[in-house]
């Protein structure tokens, strides 16, 4: 009987994955195992410091989604050395991408950003830089610098969107609208065709239906991003979301609901959009819900199995 790999109709895959996985993309681009090393550059966010709001997004942890980063008191090269030492225990001579992950990594004067990014580029095994940020934090001089940086290295700018629904964005204290997101996205696109642009969405936000999550995916597909990360909403201890969850105001998605939504979102995504992530990593000791998300491999396998059973793949229904 033919295997799932042999019967896989998706072109950008050498396994049973019926979507364009980031691992597949990196292996082909760099010819070796390549992994992202998360960094904390010591930034903050405009919806934390009062510029666009206070408190940050209601689901965001104290470390600004940088829970897997090294100590923020260390300089960038020290963080890279620490993270690379850990990576080298798993892989032989891996290459790496310096991932400025925690908080909003373009929310500082250009001189500060330049110093941190250029420092990362001096690390011998770094083959690219990835910058997580918000679409409303792309000043003109920053865009110019990013365009210049993209001439010298593989640069990805990851823009958090989370939802296209402004009512949800207001509820989660996102601090920007979908229209503002699109404006920042286009500004970056126009700055340079060489910048790899990623978009983040979160499934399971309070009071969103499956149809609303599909609508978010549809709108993102129209933008044709180079990369997409789909996250599952995690309820983390110490967040505003944790209090709301405990009050019973909303329920988390089940594994079956999540897998179904992800598969339908992938079906409408362009085939050339690399899928950077299909679920999030919740910190084991601070995760409140959903419990099932602790078993990441089970989540990934459930999605793969569902795509096989439905004989579907990324981009099946893309126009
Ligand atoms: S913008 Fe990002 S880092 Fe800042 S509060 Fe929201 S999720 Fe956290």
How many domains make up the 3D coordinates? 1
Helix fraction by DSSP (H/I, runs of at least 4)? 25-40%
CATH level 3 topology: TIM Barrel
The number of helical segments is: 10
SSE arrangement, N to C: HEHEHEHEHHEHEEHHEEH
The assigned structural class equals: alpha/beta
Outline: globular
> So, the CATH homologous superfamily?
Aldolase class I
Distance between the first and last residues' Cα: 33 Å
Low-confidence region ranges: none
Report the count of strand segments: 9
Strand line-up of the largest beta sheet: 1-2-3-4-5-6-8
The biggest beta sheet reads: 7 strands, parallel
Mean pLDDT, to the nearest integer, reads: 95
CATH architecture: Alpha-Beta Barrel
Look at the structure and give the CATH class. Alpha Beta
Per DSSP, what share of the residues sits in E-state strands of 2 or more residues?
Answer: 15-25%
Question: In short, what is this structure?
Answer:
By secondary structure, this protein is α/β, with parallel strands linked by helices.
């Amino acid at each position: 009987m033919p295997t799932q790999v042999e019967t896989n109709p998706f072109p950008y895959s050498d396994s049973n994955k019926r979507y364009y996985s980031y691992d597949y993309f990196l292996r082909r681009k760099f010819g070796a195992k390549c992994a992202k090393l998360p960094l904390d550059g010591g930034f903050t966010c405009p919806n934390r410091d009062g510029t666009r709001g206070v408190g940050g997004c209601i689901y965001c942890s104290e470390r600004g989604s940088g829970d897997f980063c090294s100590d923020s008191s260390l300089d960038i090269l020290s963080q890279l050395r620490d993270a690379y030492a850990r990576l080298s225990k798993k892989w032989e001579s891996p290459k790496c991408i310096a991932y400025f992950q925690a908080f909003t990594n373009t929310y500082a004067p250009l001189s500060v950003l330049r110093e941190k990014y250029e420092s990362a580029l001096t690390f011998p095994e770094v083959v690219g830089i990835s910058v997580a940020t918000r679409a409303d934090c792309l000043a003109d001089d920053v865009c110019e610098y990013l365009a210049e940086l993209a001439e010298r290295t593989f640069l990805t700018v990851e823009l958090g969107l989370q939802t296209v629904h402004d009512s949800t964005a207001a509820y989660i204290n996102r601090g920007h609208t979908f229209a503002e997101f699109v404006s920042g996205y286009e500004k970056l696109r126009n700055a340079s065709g060489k910048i790899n642009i990623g978009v983040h969405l979160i499934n399971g936000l309070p009071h969103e239906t499956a149809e609303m999550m599909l609508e978010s995916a549809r709108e993102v597909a129209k933008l044709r991003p180079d990369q997409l990360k789909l996250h599952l909403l995690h309820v983390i201890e110490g967040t505003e979301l944790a209090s709301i969850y405990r009050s019973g105001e909303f329920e988390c998605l089940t594994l079956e609901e999540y897998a179904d939504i992800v598969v339908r979102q992938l079906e409408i995504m362009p085939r050339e959009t690399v899928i950077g992530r299909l679920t999030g990593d919740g910190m084991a000791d601070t995760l409140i819900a959903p419990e099932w998300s602790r078993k990441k491999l089970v989540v990934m396998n459930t999605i793969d199995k569902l795509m096989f059973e439905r004989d579907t793949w990324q981009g099946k229904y893309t126009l």
